[in-house]
Amino acid sequence: MTAPIAVTIAGSDSGGGAGIQADLKTFAALGVYGASVITALTAQNTRGVTAVHDIPPVFVAAQIDAVFSDLDVRAVKIGMLSQPQTIEAVAEGLARHGQTTVVLDPVMVATSGDRLLAPPAVEVLRRVLVPRAVVITPNLPEAAALLEAPLAHSEAEMRAQGERLLALGARAVLIKGGHHAGPESVDILVEPTRMTRLAASRVETSNTHGTGCTLSSAVAAGLAKGLDLTAAVRAAKDYVTAALGAAERLAVGSGHGPVHHFHAWW
Fold first, then answer.
1. What is the pLDDT of residues 11-21, one digit of tens each?
2. Residue 68 falls within a domain, yes or no?
3. Average pLDDT over residues 147-151
4. Domain assignment of residue 263, yes or no
5. Is 241 labeled as catalytic in the residue annotation?
Protein backbone atom coordinates (compact mmCIF):
# COMPACT_ATOMS: atom_id res chain seq x y z
CA MET A 1 0.00 0.00 0.00
CA THR A 2 1.34 3.43 -0.93
CA ALA A 3 0.70 6.14 1.62
CA PRO A 4 -0.54 9.52 0.38
CA ILE A 5 2.10 12.22 0.57
CA ALA A 6 1.76 15.74 1.97
CA VAL A 7 4.42 18.44 2.23
CA THR A 8 4.72 21.10 4.89
CA ILE A 9 6.42 24.38 3.95
CA ALA A 10 7.03 26.11 7.25
CA GLY A 11 9.45 27.06 10.00
CA SER A 12 11.13 24.70 12.42
CA ASP A 13 10.22 24.78 16.13
CA SER A 14 13.23 23.63 18.14
CA GLY A 15 10.89 22.77 21.02
CA GLY A 16 9.01 20.30 18.84
CA GLY A 17 5.48 21.54 19.52
CA ALA A 18 4.65 23.66 16.48
CA GLY A 19 5.83 24.34 12.93
CA ILE A 20 7.45 21.62 10.85
CA GLN A 21 7.61 19.28 13.83
CA ALA A 22 3.89 19.54 14.60
CA ASP A 23 3.02 19.15 10.93
CA LEU A 24 5.06 15.98 10.47
CA LYS A 25 3.67 14.49 13.68
CA THR A 26 0.15 15.25 12.48
CA PHE A 27 0.76 13.72 9.05
CA ALA A 28 2.17 10.58 10.68
CA ALA A 29 -0.69 10.31 13.16
CA LEU A 30 -3.23 10.55 10.33
CA GLY A 31 -1.61 8.01 8.03
CA VAL A 32 0.08 10.37 5.60
CA TYR A 33 3.74 10.38 4.58
CA GLY A 34 5.18 13.79 5.37
CA ALA A 35 7.96 15.67 3.61
CA SER A 36 9.13 19.18 4.42
CA VAL A 37 10.53 22.44 3.12
CA ILE A 38 12.00 24.49 5.97
CA THR A 39 11.64 28.26 5.61
CA ALA A 40 13.09 29.40 8.94
CA LEU A 41 14.81 28.10 12.04
CA THR A 42 13.58 29.26 15.42
CA ALA A 43 15.21 29.09 18.82
CA GLN A 44 12.02 28.27 20.67
CA ASN A 45 10.58 26.41 23.62
CA THR A 46 7.27 26.33 25.47
CA ARG A 47 7.98 29.78 26.96
CA GLY A 48 8.58 31.65 23.71
CA VAL A 49 10.76 32.41 20.70
CA THR A 50 14.22 33.80 21.42
CA ALA A 51 15.66 33.94 17.89
CA VAL A 52 14.66 33.41 14.25
CA HIS A 53 17.03 32.57 11.40
CA ASP A 54 15.45 32.86 7.95
CA ILE A 55 16.54 30.35 5.32
CA PRO A 56 17.73 32.11 2.12
CA PRO A 57 14.92 32.09 -0.47
CA VAL A 58 17.16 30.41 -3.06
CA PHE A 59 17.61 27.49 -0.68
CA VAL A 60 13.87 27.34 0.03
CA ALA A 61 13.39 27.08 -3.75
CA ALA A 62 16.00 24.33 -3.94
CA GLN A 63 14.14 22.31 -1.29
CA ILE A 64 10.86 22.77 -3.18
CA ASP A 65 12.40 21.59 -6.43
CA ALA A 66 14.04 18.57 -4.76
CA VAL A 67 10.83 17.42 -3.06
CA PHE A 68 8.25 18.13 -5.76
CA SER A 69 10.33 16.83 -8.65
CA ASP A 70 10.48 13.38 -7.02
CA LEU A 71 7.51 12.81 -4.72
CA ASP A 72 3.87 12.38 -5.74
CA VAL A 73 2.57 15.17 -3.52
CA ARG A 74 -1.19 15.22 -2.93
CA ALA A 75 -1.47 18.27 -0.66
CA VAL A 76 0.65 21.12 0.64
CA LYS A 77 0.42 22.90 3.99
CA ILE A 78 2.09 26.31 4.23
CA GLY A 79 2.94 27.83 7.59
CA MET A 80 5.54 30.33 8.74
CA LEU A 81 6.90 32.54 5.97
CA SER A 82 8.46 35.58 7.59
CA GLN A 83 10.00 37.48 4.65
CA PRO A 84 8.54 38.78 1.36
CA GLN A 85 11.27 37.12 -0.74
CA THR A 86 10.52 33.74 0.84
CA ILE A 87 6.81 34.11 0.13
CA GLU A 88 7.59 34.92 -3.51
CA ALA A 89 9.90 31.89 -3.75
CA VAL A 90 7.20 29.59 -2.38
CA ALA A 91 4.53 30.96 -4.72
CA GLU A 92 6.84 30.53 -7.71
CA GLY A 93 7.71 26.99 -6.61
CA LEU A 94 4.05 26.00 -6.30
CA ALA A 95 3.40 27.35 -9.79
CA ARG A 96 6.47 25.63 -11.20
CA HIS A 97 5.31 22.24 -9.94
CA GLY A 98 1.58 22.69 -10.57
CA GLN A 99 0.52 22.42 -6.93
CA THR A 100 -3.08 23.51 -6.39
CA THR A 101 -4.18 21.64 -3.25
CA VAL A 102 -2.73 24.17 -0.85
CA VAL A 103 -3.72 24.81 2.77
CA LEU A 104 -2.37 28.20 3.86
CA ASP A 105 -2.04 28.90 7.57
CA PRO A 106 -1.12 32.61 7.70
CA VAL A 107 1.13 32.32 10.75
CA MET A 108 1.76 35.77 12.17
CA VAL A 109 1.97 35.41 15.95
CA ALA A 110 3.08 32.46 18.09
CA THR A 111 0.94 31.18 20.97
CA SER A 112 3.40 32.94 23.29
CA GLY A 113 2.63 36.28 21.62
CA ASP A 114 5.89 36.53 19.67
CA ARG A 115 5.43 38.06 16.20
CA LEU A 116 6.61 35.69 13.46
CA LEU A 117 5.69 37.57 10.28
CA ALA A 118 7.45 40.79 9.29
CA PRO A 119 4.83 43.51 8.57
CA PRO A 120 6.00 44.12 4.94
CA ALA A 121 5.39 40.43 4.25
CA VAL A 122 1.65 40.63 4.98
CA GLU A 123 0.86 42.43 1.72
CA VAL A 124 2.92 39.95 -0.30
CA LEU A 125 1.17 37.04 1.41
CA ARG A 126 -2.22 38.51 0.49
CA ARG A 127 -1.20 39.11 -3.09
CA VAL A 128 0.73 35.99 -4.14
CA LEU A 129 -0.24 33.12 -1.82
CA VAL A 130 -3.82 33.65 -0.66
CA PRO A 131 -5.11 33.28 -4.27
CA ARG A 132 -3.26 29.94 -4.58
CA ALA A 133 -4.94 28.39 -1.54
CA VAL A 134 -7.80 25.92 -1.61
CA VAL A 135 -8.37 27.10 1.97
CA ILE A 136 -6.73 29.58 4.34
CA THR A 137 -6.95 28.97 8.09
CA PRO A 138 -6.52 32.24 10.02
CA ASN A 139 -7.33 32.61 13.68
CA LEU A 140 -9.17 35.74 14.78
CA PRO A 141 -6.09 38.00 15.13
CA GLU A 142 -4.69 36.75 11.80
CA ALA A 143 -7.96 37.35 9.96
CA ALA A 144 -8.09 40.87 11.38
CA ALA A 145 -4.48 41.51 10.38
CA LEU A 146 -5.02 40.25 6.83
CA LEU A 147 -7.99 42.57 6.46
CA GLU A 148 -6.57 45.46 8.51
CA ALA A 149 -9.81 45.27 10.46
CA PRO A 150 -10.89 45.02 14.12
CA LEU A 151 -11.03 41.60 15.76
CA ALA A 152 -14.26 39.70 15.10
CA HIS A 153 -16.30 39.35 18.30
CA SER A 154 -19.23 37.24 17.08
CA GLU A 155 -19.93 34.43 14.67
CA ALA A 156 -21.64 36.89 12.34
CA GLU A 157 -18.50 39.03 12.28
CA MET A 158 -16.36 35.93 11.71
CA ARG A 159 -18.51 35.00 8.72
CA ALA A 160 -18.33 38.54 7.34
CA GLN A 161 -14.54 38.56 7.62
CA GLY A 162 -14.41 35.15 5.94
CA GLU A 163 -16.40 36.52 3.02
CA ARG A 164 -14.02 39.48 2.75
CA LEU A 165 -11.06 37.08 2.72
CA LEU A 166 -12.70 35.08 -0.09
CA ALA A 167 -12.59 38.28 -2.12
CA LEU A 168 -8.78 38.17 -1.87
CA GLY A 169 -8.85 35.04 -4.02
CA ALA A 170 -8.90 32.05 -1.67
CA ARG A 171 -11.40 29.35 -2.59
CA ALA A 172 -12.42 28.87 1.06
CA VAL A 173 -11.66 30.36 4.45
CA LEU A 174 -11.64 28.52 7.78
CA ILE A 175 -11.76 31.15 10.53
CA LYS A 176 -10.77 29.65 13.86
CA GLY A 177 -12.62 30.93 16.91
CA GLY A 178 -10.37 29.53 19.61
CA HIS A 179 -9.58 33.02 20.90
CA HIS A 180 -13.23 33.52 21.90
CA ALA A 181 -14.49 32.59 25.36
CA GLY A 182 -17.48 30.41 26.13
CA PRO A 183 -18.31 26.71 26.44
CA GLU A 184 -17.85 26.04 22.73
CA SER A 185 -14.91 26.54 20.39
CA VAL A 186 -16.50 27.48 17.07
CA ASP A 187 -14.75 27.56 13.71
CA ILE A 188 -16.51 28.74 10.56
CA LEU A 189 -15.76 27.41 7.09
CA VAL A 190 -16.78 30.03 4.55
CA GLU A 191 -17.08 29.00 0.89
CA PRO A 192 -18.50 30.95 -2.05
CA THR A 193 -21.88 29.21 -1.89
CA ARG A 194 -22.21 28.07 1.72
CA MET A 195 -21.10 28.41 5.31
CA THR A 196 -20.38 25.52 7.69
CA ARG A 197 -20.32 25.97 11.47
CA LEU A 198 -17.96 23.59 13.30
CA ALA A 199 -18.36 23.52 17.06
CA ALA A 200 -16.69 21.49 19.79
CA SER A 201 -16.73 21.71 23.56
CA ARG A 202 -13.96 24.05 24.67
CA VAL A 203 -11.02 22.20 26.24
CA GLU A 204 -9.61 23.95 29.29
CA THR A 205 -5.85 23.54 29.05
CA SER A 206 -2.78 25.74 28.87
CA ASN A 207 -1.12 23.22 26.55
CA THR A 208 -2.16 24.85 23.28
CA HIS A 209 1.22 25.27 21.60
CA GLY A 210 1.02 24.33 17.93
CA THR A 211 -2.78 24.15 17.76
CA GLY A 212 -3.05 26.16 14.55
CA CYS A 213 -0.21 24.32 12.84
CA THR A 214 -1.78 21.01 13.80
CA LEU A 215 -5.23 21.95 12.50
CA SER A 216 -3.98 23.16 9.12
CA SER A 217 -1.74 20.14 8.63
CA ALA A 218 -4.62 17.84 9.60
CA VAL A 219 -6.74 19.50 6.90
CA ALA A 220 -3.93 18.94 4.40
CA ALA A 221 -3.68 15.30 5.49
CA GLY A 222 -7.38 14.81 4.86
CA LEU A 223 -7.14 16.38 1.42
CA ALA A 224 -4.10 14.21 0.62
CA LYS A 225 -6.21 11.14 1.46
CA GLY A 226 -8.92 12.25 -0.96
CA LEU A 227 -11.47 13.77 1.40
CA ASP A 228 -13.44 16.75 0.16
CA LEU A 229 -12.76 20.04 1.93
CA THR A 230 -15.68 19.96 4.36
CA ALA A 231 -14.91 16.38 5.41
CA ALA A 232 -11.21 17.18 5.77
CA VAL A 233 -11.99 20.19 7.95
CA ARG A 234 -14.41 18.21 10.14
CA ALA A 235 -11.90 15.40 10.61
CA ALA A 236 -9.16 17.91 11.41
CA LYS A 237 -11.36 19.66 14.00
CA ASP A 238 -12.09 16.30 15.68
CA TYR A 239 -8.40 15.37 15.71
CA VAL A 240 -7.27 18.68 17.22
CA THR A 241 -10.03 18.62 19.85
CA ALA A 242 -8.90 15.15 20.95
CA ALA A 243 -5.23 16.24 20.91
CA LEU A 244 -6.10 19.21 23.14
CA GLY A 245 -8.13 16.99 25.44
CA ALA A 246 -5.15 14.69 25.94
CA ALA A 247 -2.56 17.48 26.20
CA GLU A 248 -2.49 17.39 30.00
CA ARG A 249 -1.11 13.85 29.78
CA LEU A 250 2.11 15.34 28.41
CA ALA A 251 4.58 17.07 30.72
CA VAL A 252 6.65 19.08 28.25
CA GLY A 253 8.28 22.34 29.33
CA SER A 254 7.14 24.96 31.81
CA GLY A 255 5.14 27.25 29.49
CA HIS A 256 2.42 26.57 26.93
CA GLY A 257 2.98 22.88 26.29
CA PRO A 258 2.12 21.12 23.02
CA VAL A 259 -1.04 19.30 22.09
CA HIS A 260 -0.82 15.50 22.16
CA HIS A 261 -0.42 14.52 18.51
CA PHE A 262 -0.21 10.81 19.30
CA HIS A 263 -3.07 10.67 21.80
CA ALA A 264 -4.51 7.59 20.12
CA TRP A 265 -1.33 5.57 20.67
CA TRP A 266 0.44 6.87 23.79
1. 999 999 999 99
2. yes
3. 90
4. no
5. no
CATH of residue 81's domain is 3.40.1190.20
d(CA 62, CA 64): 5
Structural domain containing residue 184: 5-249
Nearest of 88, 97, 95 to residue 35 by alpha carbon:
97
What digits encode the pLDDT tens for the residues 6-51? 999 999 999 999 999 999 999 999 999 999 999 999 999 999 889 9
From the list 11, 79, 213, 241, the catalytic residue is: 213
Q: Does residue 29 form part of some domain? A: yes
Catalytic hit among 26, 39, 208, 241: 208
| Catalytic residue status for 79 | no
Write down the mean pLDDT value for the chain: 92
Tell me if residue 19 is catalytic: no
Name the band, by pLDDT with cuts 50, 70 and 90, for residue 207.
Answer: confident
Q: Active-site residue 176, yes or no?
A: yes
Taking the mean position of all CA atoms in its chain, how far away is CA 232? 14
**pTM score, whole prediction:** 0.95
DSSP one-letter code for 126: I
Neighbours of 117 (CB within 10 A): 19
